[in-house]
Amino acid sequence: MLSEFGLALKYVRAEGNTLYYLADDGTHVGVFDAASGFGSLMFGHNNPVLVEHAKWLLDQQTPIHAQFSGYSYATNLAEKLNDIVRRELRTDEKYFCLFGNSGAEAVEITIKHAELDRGMRIKDLKTGIDNNVEVARRAVMNGADITAAAERLDVDANLESLVSELQRRNLETELRPPLFLALEGGFHGKLVSSVQLTFNEEFRGPFKALAAQARFVPRSQPEVIDKILEEERASLLDLVVQDGELAVVERAFPVFAAFLIEPILGEAGIFPISEELARAVRLACDRTGVPLVSDEIQSGMGRSGTFLAGTHIDLRPDYIILAKALGGGIAKLGVVLVNENRYRKEFELMHTSTFGRDGFSSRIALKFLQMLEADGGKAYKMAAERGLEAKSMFLKIKDDYPDVVKDVRGEGLILGFELRDQSSSESAEIRESVRFEALPFVIGGHLLRKHKIRIFSTASNLDTLRFEPSIFLSQDEIAQVDVGFRDVCDILRAQDASRFA
């Protein structure tokens, strides 16, 4: 498919916002990279400071593998992440860090930790019920009446029948598989468990039988959260003694392991979620005891103008997932930060990863964080300022082509440029491209060949082009994108597919 649309180029060199491909004549041709490794390159390709640091680490023979030792460079990274996150969230609470090799693996770690936590809460609940049953046994021996409790469970009025039925019903509830909550349009990876939290049915559908499922909430309908919680509500039955009688009472059973959200829905088309939704999610999680997980894999690490995109909407998560840009574009790592009030220390030996805390990646990430924080957080300001300039340019295009451009949205340097649906185009060729989900490739190929711009659509909203360059975005590059996008809009307005390069 890439060859068909002129996208199958051999890239041989990269620096800043530029990728160089090998042309037929052997020369290197530079193109502006607006995709930036799906947001992985805050400081551009092969940033010289990060590259020099990586070389130095290798020259110093930095221990990459030193598992089961008393010290790890990941400890320093965890401390630095805590400093930044606590500042942004305005909290003194500590976050424990669980390391992996990628964003998708970090989501898998989150799923496992959340399910361990749910299981331990269920265990505590069952222990309390077992203790109450023993208290009830002693009460019956002392003359407590079991009539009302037996009628409630529709069994004979004897203690053993009552306890047996209570345990049978509880076992049915305990065997229910866990559920997760996530947002419609959300993307949390494509591994065996994480893909079930990704809304796109094409990605998760074939693998539903392999992992726990999710209930999805429309981002524009926060009220649906309570409806779903009520639909899935379950209880364990407890036996208590009240005024000389046995009574059956319900104890809320933790059905949901976690609620995952992206502060800016990336693959859905770059949709920042609203403060209203953020508040509704937090309130629902507090009310039900479900941990709130903020997936900042694509939107975090300064890209939105703050370290966490959730800062814009005062999001207060229990877990935070980071990856992509954290490795500076040259190291692979992901991390889950778990609030101390949610952390289960038993997890540390239940999930391990050979490269999860390696010395090289940890120290590259530390350098990346130092660069973000340098000069009073200059990098954050640059992301916000460059993003505002780019967004203003896109909005002017939208104003000039309201019949072609549907929306421009995003924060900082994670922006979405949404075109209007072309499925009813006057051009048969354009209609066919839409039908076969090929129009984004046609547009991408045109921008690459004619305007030397490398850009992709979002995975689950093919009408939206993602714009995620580094903070070193220049005025010339903005002007280059302006010309290229206006050319695409001219072609779509004219409904003349023959003009696509």
Describe the protein's architecture and organization:
By secondary structure, this protein is of the alpha/beta class. 41% of the residues lie in helices and 18% in strands. The protein is built from 13 helices and 18 strands. The protein has helices at 36-39, 48-59, 73-89, 103-141, 147-153, 159-174, 201-204, 224-231, 275-288, 359-400, 428-435, 439-451, 475-494; strands spanning 11-15, 18-22, 28-33, 95-100, 179-183, 213-217, 235-242, 245-252, 256-261, 264-265, 271-272, 292-295, 319-322, 334-339, 405-411, 414-419, 453-454, 464-467. The strands form five sheets. The protein has a seven-stranded mixed sheet, sandwiched between helices. A hairpin with a 2-residue loop joins strand 15 (405-411) and strand 16 (414-419).
Summarize the SSE layout with pairings.
Blueprint: E1 11-15, E2 18-22, E3 28-33, H1 36-39, H2 48-59, H3 73-89, E4 95-100, H4 103-141, H5 147-153, H6 159-174, E5 179-183, H7 201-204, E6 213-217, H8 224-231, E7 235-242, E8 245-252, E9 256-261, E10 264-265, E11 271-272, H9 275-288, E12 292-295, E13 319-322, E14 334-339, H10 359-400, E15 405-411, E16 414-419, H11 428-435, H12 439-451, E17 453-454, E18 464-467, H13 475-494
Parallel strand pairs: 3-17, 5-6, 5-9, 9-12, 12-13
Antiparallel strand pairs: 1-2, 2-3, 4-14, 7-8, 10-11, 13-14, 15-16, 16-18
Helix pairs in contact: 2-10, 3-10, 10-13, 12-13
